[in-house]
Amino acid sequence: MIETADGFRLLTGYFDRDAQTRLVSDVLERVARAPLYQPAMPRTGKPLSVRMTNLGPLGWMTDKAGGYRYQDHHPVTGNPWPDMPDSLLDLWGAVSGWPDPPQACLVNWYGPDARMGLHVDADEDAREAPVVSVSLGDTARFRLGGPERKGSTQSVRLHSGDVVVLGGASRHFHHGVDRIYPESSTLLPEDWRPGRINLTLRRVRD
Ligand code: MD3
Ligand code: FE
Asked: Is ligand 1 within 6 A of the CB of residue 200?
């Protein structure tokens, strides 16, 4: 476990293999009803390499026409996002220290060549609530910066079953995913491999 003065907490191996397997099945059963879609950058429409969907009352999305936002329905099916599994609500209750439940669970799927550039999560009105993330499947090289875009960064490997809690100042730090390590895990079902699933739990509205 790594903890910094800025409120960044890495809980390595939070979920054991059995709990990871159950969580993957809880999530994939819902993703079957809310399929991954390809998000795109505002204005340019350049596709992101990560594919996404959401669980819970609100979901984060981006497309050329509407830009970054939260909305209550899937962009392709038009249906409300599936509910969050109890296991994720329990996780939030156990590690977030926040009295209200999460409103959004973004599901990111990284194929072998997917990356996420350095960015700040800034589309939530709830600016003080922490973000909780779960890594499943292949290992990622995660990059954590600071409040300024030009500042120094450090890299941390996130393994399957690790949980990260972004509280305090770290909630507003730059971060990204440099790469994944294909076939570093055997957790995910065959049709999701090589690959990594990241779940990000957030409060959106105050
Ligand atoms: C550090 N996802 O969805 S999760 C994202 O692995 C996102 O898919 C990455 O960044 C992923 O926005 C990183 C860990 C994480 C989430 C939110 C943070 C780290 C963070 C917010 C502030 C600082
Ligand atoms: Fe982020």
From this structure: yes
